[in-house]
Amino acid sequence: MKGQLSAEMLILIVVVLAVVAVVAYQLMGTAEEASEQIGEQSESILNKAEQFSKAQDGDFCVEDNDCLSDNCIDKVCE
Fold it and tell me: Which of 27, 44, 47, 61 is within CB 3.0–4.6 Å of 66 for a Cys-Cys bond?
């Protein structure tokens, strides 16, 4: 009879779907961990870049956020 599924075929389909679900779950976990690590490394890089781009004590500044100490008085970082 055409169009009928045997019990073996149904079991095979269920097993394949279960394997696909397990693999997808593992990939999602791995992707989440990788995303967290990328976020941490990006934050670290941004912090280091900010430290190098800000003026040191005694350097010229216009606003408080121009200085590493966030303290600009009379156009000089304090």
Answer: 61
Cα dihedral 46/47/53/56 (nearest 10): 180
Annotated domain spans of the chain? 15-77
**pLDDT (tens digit, 9 = 90+) per residue, 31-44?**
999 999 999 999 99
Enter the pTM of the model: 0.53
**Ramachandran class of 19: left when φ > 0, alpha when ψ lies in -120 to 50, beta otherwise:** alpha
CA–CA distance, 70 with 28 (Å, rounded to integer): 41
- Is the separation of the CB atoms in 12 and 18 below 8 Å? no
Tell me, what's the pLDDT at 29? Answer: 95
